[in-house]
Amino acid sequence: VQEEKIFAGKVLRLHVCTMEGAEWLEEVPEDTTVEKLKERCLKHCVPGSLEDPKTVTHHKLIHATSEKVLTDTKTVLEENIQDRDVLLLIKKRAPPPLPKMADVSAEEKRKQEQKAPDKDAILKATANLPSRNVDRTVAHHNMRDFQTELRKILVSLIEVAQKLLALNPDAVELFKKANAMLDEDEEDRVDEIALRQLTEMGFPESRAVKALRLNHMSVTQAMEWLIEHADDPTVDAPLPGQTPSEATAEAGASSAEAAAGPSSEAGGEEAKDELTEIFKKIRRKREFRPDPRAVIALMEMGFDEKEVVDALRVNNNQQNAACEWLLGDRKPSPEDLDKGIDTNSPLFQAILENPVVQLGLTNPKTLLAFEDMLENPLNSTQWMNDPETGPVMLQISRIFQTLNRT
After folding, report:
1. CB neighbour list of residue 42: distance below 8 Å, 6 or more residues apart
2. pLDDT at residue 47 tops 60
């Protein structure tokens, strides 16, 4: 008995298949390398194929169960192949041919054509164009023109809405309900818990209310303000620009309530007068309310209170912009804010012809929104997000932007 047969490893019977459908059994010792097994398989299915040394490297053996590609340098035992396992002999896919130089040049040329121009190319292409100096000042001016134009649109739309709503037989009742919405406005309310905390510390209620309004209902900041101004002789003075409007609103409320009783059963003329009073009351309630902190800061710079309130109204309660307005040419003037848009202009006609706007003008809430945005532009976001007034404001904005581009 030969020595190699005595110490030979276990012989495995493997089932080999090809993609063409050929099948056979190969009996190999378990210490046979995968490369040797692959040579035996190629001799069986492709006679004469081993004359080309590349034939072996162009084929691979795959374990059918695990779908693993067997490594040529490993043995059958190392690849954990068991007796009766099935192997698949397939030809490797040929690598894609390398691109021709002409194709490479064409691809590079295409990429260069699609590449964005650099700074030098832009300067060369625009060398003959007239120069324009556009800076932030111009952009700010354009934004202000937009705000001014929007105010004019709102002024004119308020007039149209009032006329349309006055024709509604239920207008008085509608506006009584709408007016009640204003009474629920959170802006004038004071946080009762915060107020109680300050009064329990010993601060007078009226002074605590003023401190909370100045400090956006923050107890800590209000307390610091009260301590800082404890010896200030003007600490109990009303907030600039606030008390007159509140007093006027209360007077308007009492007059409107007095008119509401007998007018409810009166004729059309009296109902119209009552509606006019309600409109006035709404307007007084929605009067512009300047930011108290901004008023105090600007007055400390030496400006008169009326001038400061006008500046804040023109500049949407923005303190820095109001300061620039006071130091500049003061354009636009407060009187310009009450002027409406030309009713014969294409812009206004396009707005009125929009079905969404037409429907919205018959809703009392839309009129309230216009009044509020007219005097408090910072509240525009609130009305833009409202399900009733938002679509109207969106259409107005789209029409303005479209005609502004033409």
Report:
1. 49, 50, 55, 56, 59, 89
2. yes
